[in-house]
Specification:
single chain; alpha/beta; Rossmann fold; 2 domains; eight-stranded mixed beta sheet; five-stranded parallel beta sheet; 25% strand; elongated
């Protein structure tokens, strides 16, 4: 396996040499990319000696006679050949460039061309780390699914004491090993996912629905594809870009979602019901727009099909994961769903907490397992939580395969 190691311009750049050595000792091929500022702190020769590879120091050839065309597309080649991108130290400048999509040197350009897992280890002055702009950039990068190895607290080169010191290189190398291990751990699995709300028509212009944005389901789809699974995403009406690598099936009503799920069930080894399917639909939708009058109007509702329960009855050797979004105690409802709908795991969360749940980019959840174990995951981006959910699903898949 190959990793690209980006080195930013800060006093902690010298620690990146220790990180490069640790990665090489893991048996990884390490391609170092240094910013111009990084070269003011550590010479490229140091990294070349540690990795046995030429260090990339710029976008264009420095000496006359070098292959200009090869240099011009080298950032694409490195991005394609690397299974992970690690940046240490990730300076405030680099975090801002990555978050904003600025590509003005080799490292920031390669970042935009890279589609694999990204590990960022920030290091900077305490005040710079705490600045709202930096924290906003870090939040954006977390939401993209990047792994942030938070800086440690201690005495800094500037004389201040506080957070900002580069994490221990051994710790960063350990995180990289974990990320690479999970990268293809769903290979061979077909994940059937549902996401978003459904819309149940009242008449041609009105419908009954809910506040689901689909963000959690889309984050799960992106995480599953990144870990090597084939992903079939049955999505209700949402305003989100398609997750990379997912096969999209778009539906509108609960009945359409049920039909799509059953149509793809035979090929699925993992089923995740993250959609907020409407519990009721209008019994007899009007064929024409209902005109407003002064009189009250009553809608007759009838229950929709319980897709999760139906899959639970016929699931066979598949791994089945449900969701329980509640305004009270999600744990009790998650346990009820686990038992009554034959799930292997239920993800519970409260939707009445400010800043998480429907429409938010963050969530705080609990994983209720058939073993009785309850794993509480604190507030984090939905993309980050998606990987934590799949960490458990991978174990469930291994147990399911062992039983077969």
């Amino acid at each position: 396996m190959n990793v690209a190691l980006g080195v930013g311009g800060g006093i902690a750049a010298y620690k990146a040499a220790e990180l490069a050595r640790a990665l090489v000792e893991q048996g990884l091929g390490v391609q170092v990319v240094m910013t111009r500022a990084a070269q003011e702190f550590v010479r490229p020769l140091t990294f070349a000696a540690l990795t046995g590879r030429k260090v990339i120091t710029g976008m264009f050839p420095e000496r006359q006679g070098e292959d200009t065309l090869s240099s011009a597309i080298e950032h694409i080649q490195v991005a394609q050949e690397s299974q992970a991108l690690v940046v240490a130290p990730a300076t405030a400048d680099l975090l801002a460039k990555f978050a904003g999509g600025i590509a003005d040197d080799f490292l920031s350009t390669m970042y935009l061309a890279f589609t694999g897992p990204v590990v960022l280890a920030p290091a900077m002055n305490t005040n710079m780390w705490r600045h709202p702009a930096t924290q906003r950039n870090v939040a954006v990068l977390r939401e993209r699914g990047h792994v942030i190895v938070d800086p440690e607290e201690g005495f800094l080169a500037c004389g201040m004491v506080g957070p900002g010191r580069l994490a221990n290189p051994a710790r960063i190398a350990g995180v990289v090993a974990e990320v690479l291990a999970r990268r293809r751990d769903l290979e061979g699995e077909t994940v059937l996912l549902t996401a978003g709300p459904t819309e149940e028509p009242i008449d041609p212009v009105r419908f009954v629905s809910n506040r689901s944005s689909g963000k959690m389901g889309y984050a799960l789809a992106e995480a599953a594809a990144a870990r090597g699974a084939r992903v079939v995403l049955v999505a209700g009406p949402v305003s989100l870009p398609d997750p990379p690598g997912a096969e999209m099936v778009r539906v509108r009503t609960a009945a359409e979602m049920r039909a799509a799920v059953l149509a793809h069930l035979a090929e699925a080894t993992v089923v995740i019901k993250a959609a907020a399917v409407a519990d009721y639909r209008v019994a007899s939708p009007a064929a024409r727009k209902i005109k407003k009058t002064a009189a009250p109007m009553t809608l007759e509702l009838e229950p929709t099909a319980d897709i999760l329960a139906e899959i639970g009855r016929i699931k066979g050797g598949r791994v089945l994961v449900g969701f329980a979004a509640e305004t009270g105690d999600p744990a009790s409802e998650a346990r009820r769903k686990l038992e009554t709908k034959n799930c292997d795991m239920v993800v519970g969360n409260r939707v009445d907490i400010e800043g998480v749940g429907f429409g938010s980019d963050q969530n705080e959840i609990m994983l209720v397992l058939r073993t009785g174990e309850v794993i509480e995951l604190p507030r984090a981006s939905k993309r980050e939580l998606a990987d934590r959910i799949f960490d458990q699903i991978v174990k469930l898949c291994a147990a399911a395969h062992a039983r077969q």
